C-alpha cells in the first residue's frame, strides 16, 4: 500500500442535539507530532469536537480515524465497548476541572488504569508513577491526596495520569481555564515540554499567546463550522475572515 | 421477690458465649449488608429494567414491614420451599438483607451525586463502564455515606436481639436460658442490657476511628 | 398463592392491624411527650438535668428495644411494676422511641437557636421569651419531617410486642404461619397492612409538613 493516511482524521463530523446543530460537517486532519489549537467563542462547538475524537460525545454522523483505525466504528454494543475502551487507551484527555479521583492518592491516580488495563506489576506501576510524576514536576507529592493540592498541581497530576497510558494523542479541553492566573504558567510549561517531545496534541484553549507560541496550526471555529485555519502567524496576524477578525480583536483586547 | 444479683456469676459462661454469638451475627450481617447494599445500589441504578423494577418493589416491601416479620418469612419460608437453614444463617440473611436495602438507598443517593466528570475521566482512560463504576464511582459514593452506614450497623447490633425469636442462641436467648433456670428475669435482662451497652460503645468507637482515617481522601 | 386461605383469615389480620394502629398511636404520643421532656432536659441550664437527659438517651439508644421491653414486662414485677402486656408494650416502646425523638427535637432546636435565638436576644427578649416566641415555632416546623422518620420506624417497631404475646399483626402472622405452613401468604397479608398503615401515616406527615411550611 502506497496510500498514506493522516495520523488523525475527522471526516464530515456532524452533531445535533434535537434541532440544534452544534457541529456542521467538519473535516480536518492532524499529522503525527503536530500541535493544533482550536479557538473560538463559547458555544462554537470546539469542546464538542474535541470530545467527539474519543467518542465521549458521540457524533450524529461522520468518522474519526486515529493511525489507520476508525475510532467510532459502528459495531454491535458489546464489541463496540471493547473497541472504544482500547481506542481510548491510546487517546489521553485532560479536562478543565481536572477530574482527579479524590479517593485515590496521586500515585494511585496515575497507576490505576495501567494496572487494571495493562496488567503491569505493582513494582512496574510504581516506577511508571515516579517517571510520569517526575516528568510533570510532581514527584514530591506522590503520596498526597488530590484535596491537598493546588489547582495547577492537580492539573499536572491529571496530565501525568493521562501520559501513564502512553497515548499516541493528547486532547486538552481548556486545561487552564479553571486555574487562578498565577497557576496557569506551570501547566503551560508542562504542555510546552510535551510539545518539544513531539507528542501529537489537540488543544482547545482561550489563551491566544500560548496557542501562538506552541502550536503548529490554529483552527478557528464559530457556530459549528471551521471558519479559518492555518499557521498561527497567519491566523493571528492576518486573518482573512471577518468573524476571525472580530473574535481576535475582542479577545486580544480583553487579554491585554 | 426482691433483686439478687448474686444469681448472675454462675452464668458468666452462658452470657459470654451469648456475647460472642451476638458479635458474630452482627459482624456477619454487617458485612453482608455492606456488600449487599453496594450490589443492590448498582443494580438499582444500572441494571436492566426487568431487574430494576422487581428490585424496587422488594426494596419498598422490605422498608415498609417489620424486620421481625421478615425474619419469620425467611426462616419459615425457606424451610417451606425445602431450604432448611440453620437459625444462625437464616438470621444473618434476614438481618443482612434488611440492612442491605437501607444501605443501598444511601449508596444510590451518593452515587447519583458523584460528579459526572469522574465517570468521564475513567472512561477516557479506557476503563469499561463496569470498571469505572467499581473503581471510581462506588468507592467515592460509599466513602461519602460511611457515617450513616455506620449508624445502620449500630442499629443492626441492637436488632440482632430479634434473631433470638427464631432460636439463635445469642445474648438475648442466653439471658432467657439463664432466666429459665433461675426465674430471675430482671437480673438477667439487666445484665444483657449492660453487655449490649458495652458492645455498642465499643462498636461506636471503632466506627468513629474508621471515619477519622478516611477523612483525607475527599 | 393460596387465595382461598387469605380470604378465610384476613378478618383476623384486620383486627390485629387495628391493635397495631392503637399501639402505634399510643407509643407515638408517649414518645413525643418523652422526647419533649428529654430535649428540654438536654438543653437545661442545670448540669445535673442535662446529665439525666443524656443518660436517658444513651441508655435507651444503646440497648435493644426488645431487651427494654422484656426487662419491663418480665422483670417489672420483681421491683413492684405489674403491667399487662399491652401496657408494658406501650410504655416500653414509648420510652424507647422517646429517646430517638429527644435527639430529633434537640437537633431542630439547636439549629434554629444558633442564628435566630441570638438575633431575638439582641432585640432585648429574655432567654425564655426568645425561646417561646422565636426559636420554638421555627424548630417545630423543622422537626416534623425527621419526627415522621421516627414514627415510621416506630410503626414497624410495634412488631416487637409480639414477643410478649400482644396479638398484633406480626404475632397474628407468626401464629398463622405456624398453623397453616403458608409463610408467603401470611407475610403478604401482614405486609400489605403494615404498608397501608405506614403509607397513610407518611402522607399525613407530609401534609402536616406542607401546611406548616406555608404559614
From TrEMBL, chain A:
Gene Ontology CC entries for this record: plasma membrane
Keyword ATP-binding on entry: yes
InterPro entries xrefs: AAA+_ATPase (IPR003593), ABC_ATPase_HisP-typ (IPR030679), ABC_transporter-like_ATP-bd (IPR003439), ABC_transporter-like_CS (IPR017871), MetN_ABC_transporter-like (IPR050086), P-loop_NTPase (IPR027417)
PROSITE patterns: ABC_TRANSPORTER_1, ABC_TRANSPORTER_2
Cell membrane keyword on record: yes
Record membrane topology: Peripheral membrane protein
GO molecular function, one term: ATP hydrolysis activity
Gene3D superfamilies assigned: P-loop containing nucleotide triphosphate hydrolases
Keywords associated with the record: Amino-acid transport, ATP-binding, Cell membrane, Membrane, Nucleotide-binding, Transport
Domain ABC transporter: 8-248
Subcellular location: Cell membrane
UniProt family annotation: Belongs to the ABC transporter superfamily.
Official protein name in the record: ABC transporter
Automatic annotation (TrEMBL), chain B:
Pfam family, one: BPD_transp_1
Annotated TM spans: 20-45, 57-79, 85-102, 161-180, 186-207
Keyword Transmembrane helix: yes
Keyword Transmembrane helix recorded: yes
GO cellular component, one term: ATP-binding cassette (ABC) transporter complex
Position of the signal peptide: none
ABC transmembrane type-1 domain: residues covered: 19-207
GO BP terms, alphabetized: amino acid transport
Alphabetical list of Gene3D superfamilies matching this protein: MetI-like (1.10.3720.10)
Family: Belongs to the binding-protein-dependent transport system permease family. HisMQ subfamily.
Protein's recorded name: Amino acid ABC transporter permease
Organism: Thioclava indica
From TrEMBL, chain C:
A Pfam family per the record: BPD_transp_1
Topology with respect to the bilayer: Multi-pass membrane protein
Subcellular location: Cell inner membrane; Cell membrane
PROSITE patterns assigned: ABC_TM1
InterPro entries: AA_ABC_transptr_permease_3TM, ArtM/GltK/GlnP/TcyL/YhdX-like, MetI-like, MetI-like_sf
Transmembrane segments: 12-39, 51-73, 79-101, 147-167, 187-208
Domain of life: Bacteria
Gene Ontology biological process: amino acid transport
Family annotation (NCBIfam families): HEQRo_perm_3TM
Protein name: Nickel transporter
Amino acid at each position: 500500500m502506497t496510500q498514506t493516511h493522516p495520523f488523525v482524521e475527522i471526516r464530515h463530523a456532524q452533531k445535533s442535539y434535537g434541532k440544534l446543530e452544534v457541529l456542521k460537517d467538519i473535516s480536518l486532519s492532524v499529522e503525527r507530532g503536530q500541535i493544533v489549537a482550536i479557538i473560538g467563542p463559547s458555544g462554537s462547538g470546539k469542546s464538542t469536537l474535541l470530545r467527539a475524537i474519543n467518542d465521549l460525545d458521540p457524533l450524529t454522523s461522520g468518522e474519526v480515524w486515529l493511525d489507520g483505525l476508525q475510532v467510532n466504528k459502528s459495531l454491535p454494543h458489546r464489541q463496540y465497548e471493547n473497541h472504544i475502551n482500547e481506542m481510548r487507551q491510546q487517546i489521553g484527555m485532560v479536562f478543565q476541572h481536572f477530574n482527579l479521583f479524590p479517593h485515590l492518592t496521586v500515585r494511585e491516580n496515575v497507576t490505576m488504569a495501567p494496572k487494571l488495563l495493562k496488567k503491569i506489576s505493582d513494582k512496574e506501576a510504581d516506577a511508571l508513577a515516579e517517571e510520569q510524576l517526575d516528568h510533570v514536576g510532581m514527584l514530591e507529592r506522590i503520596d498526597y491526596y488530590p484535596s491537598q493540592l493546588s489547582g495547577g498541581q492537580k492539573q499536572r497530576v491529571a496530565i501525568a495520569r493521562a501520559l501513564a497510558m502512553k497515548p499516541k494523542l493528547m486532547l486538552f479541553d481548556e486545561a487552564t481555564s479553571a486555574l487562578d492566573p498565577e497557576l496557569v504558567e506551570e501547566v503551560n510549561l508542562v504542555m510546552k515540554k510535551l510539545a518539544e517531545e513531539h507528542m501529537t496534541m489537540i488543544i482547545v484553549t482561550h489563551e491566544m499567546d500560548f496557542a501562538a507560541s506552541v502550536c503548529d496550526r490554529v483552527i478557528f471555529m464559530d457556530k459549528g463550522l471551521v471558519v479559518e485555519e492555518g499557521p498561527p502567524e497567519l491566523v493571528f496576524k492576518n486573518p482573512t475572515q471577518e468573524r476571525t477578525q472580530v473574535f481576535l480583536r475582542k479577545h486580544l483586547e480583553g487579554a491585554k | 421477690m426482691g433483686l439478687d444479683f448474686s444469681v448472675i456469676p454462675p452464668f458468666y459462661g452462658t452470657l459470654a458465649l451469648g456475647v460472642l454469638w451476638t458479635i458474630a451475627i452482627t459482624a456477619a450481617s454487617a458485612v453482608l449488608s455492606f456488600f449487599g447494599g453496594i450490589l443492590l445500589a448498582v443494580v438499582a441504578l444500572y441494571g436492566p429494567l426487568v431487574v430494576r423494577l422487581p428490585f424496587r418493589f422488594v426494596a419498598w416491601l422490605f422498608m415498609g414491614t417489620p424486620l421481625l416479620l421478615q425474619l419469620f418469612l425467611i426462616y419459615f419460608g425457606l424451610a417451606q420451599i425445602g431450604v432448611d437453614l440453620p437459625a444462625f444463617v437464616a438470621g444473618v440473611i434476614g438481618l443482612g438483607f434488611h440492612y442491605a436495602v437501607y444501605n443501598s438507598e444511601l449508596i444510590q443517593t451518593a452515587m447519583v451525586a458523584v460528579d459526572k466528570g469522574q465517570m468521564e475521566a475513567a472512561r477516557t482512560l479506557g476503563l469499561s463502564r463496569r470498571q469505572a463504576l467499581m473503581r471510581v464511582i462506588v468507592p467515592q459514593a460509599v466513602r461519602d455515606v460511611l457515617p450513616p452506614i455506620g449508624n445502620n450497623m449500630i442499629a443492626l447490633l441492637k436488632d440482632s436481639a430479634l434473631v433470638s425469636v427464631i432460636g439463635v442462641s445469642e445474648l438475648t436467648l442466653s439471658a432467657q436460658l439463664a432466666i429459665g433456670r433461675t426465674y430471675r428475669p430482671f437480673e438477667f435482662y439487666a445484665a444483657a442490657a449492660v453487655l449490649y451497652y458495652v458492645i455498642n460503645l465499643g462498636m461506636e468507637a471503632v466506627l468513629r476511628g474508621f471515619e477519622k482515617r478516611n477523612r483525607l481522601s475527599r | 398463592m393460596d387465595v382461598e386461605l387469605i380470604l378465610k383469615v384476613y378478618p383476623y389480620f384486620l383486627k390485629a392491624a387495628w391493635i397495631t394502629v392503637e399501639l402505634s398511636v399510643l407509643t407515638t404520643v408517649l414518645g413525643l411527650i418523652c422526647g419533649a421532656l428529654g430535649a428540654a432536659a438536654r438543653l437545661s441550664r442545670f448540669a445535673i438535668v442535662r446529665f439525666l437527659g443524656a443518660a436517658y438517651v444513651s441508655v435507651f439508644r444503646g440497648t435493644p428495644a426488645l431487651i427494654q421491653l422484656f426487662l419491663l414486662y418480665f422483670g417489672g414485677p420483681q421491683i413492684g411494676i405489674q403491667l399487662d402486656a399491652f401496657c408494658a408494650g406501650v410504655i416500653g416502646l414509648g420510652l424507647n422511641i422517646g429517646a430517638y425523638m429527644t435527639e430529633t427535637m434537640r437537633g431542630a432546636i439547636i439549629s434554629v437557636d444558633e442564628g435566630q435565638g441570638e438575633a431575638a436576644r439582641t432585640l432585648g427578649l429574655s432567654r425564655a421569651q426568645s425561646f417561646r416566641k422565636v426559636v420554638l415555632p421555627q424548630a417545630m416546623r423543622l422537626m416534623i419531617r425527621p419526627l415522621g422518620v421516627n414514627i415510621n420506624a416506630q410503626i414497624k417497631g410495634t412488631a416487637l410486642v409480639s414477643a410478649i404475646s400482644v396479638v398484633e399483626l406480626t404475632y397474628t402472622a407468626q401464629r398463622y404461619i405456624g398453623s397453616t405452613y403458608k409463610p408467603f401468604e401470611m407475610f403478604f397479608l401482614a405486609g400489605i397492612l403494615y404498608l397501608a398503615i405506614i403509607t397513610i401515616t407518611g402522607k399525613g406527615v407530609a401534609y402536616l409538613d406542607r401546611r406548616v411550611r406555608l404559614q
